[in-house]
Write a structure and sequence with these properties.
7 helices, 113 residues, mainly alpha
Length: 113
């Protein structure tokens, strides 16, 4: 991709709170490669620390805890390992992955330009 395309994509990713340099992705040529890069660099991993922030996030985004508990189960957590911080972080990370997937058409349009 060109430097201009890399800058556009980096700017687009900032809207979903993923901060990477254009130089970090300039060698990538597809949406899939960018997604793989973001996974490899832990860019999707959002860590929510402190009980109060975690509880606030969960009450706003998963008050029944169904989504976050399902994610924890799918990853292999045991119930005795779970904290509000873990549940909130798992949910925030998954939300960021979904937001990235929602940018697929825009990213592909930038790459094709």
């Amino acid at each position: 991709m060109t430097n201009k395309q890399a800058k556009e994509i980096a700017s687009l990713l900032e809207k979903i709170n993923i901060y990477i340099s254009a130089e970090g992705i300039i060698e990538l040529d597809s949406f899939q490669e960018i997604g793989d890069y973001l996974e490899e660099t832990d860019s999707f991993n959002i860590e929510i620390v402190t009980f109060s922030r975690a509880m606030e996030y969960l009450s706003e985004n998963d008050s029944s805890l169904q989504a976050s508990l399902k994610l924890a189960y799918e990853i292999g957590y045991n119930v005795n390992e779970l904290t509000s911080e873990i549940l909130a972080s798992l949910l925030a990370s998954e939300k960021t992955r979904q937001e990235f997937e929602n940018l697929k058409d825009e990213i592909e349009a930038i790459l094709e330009a």
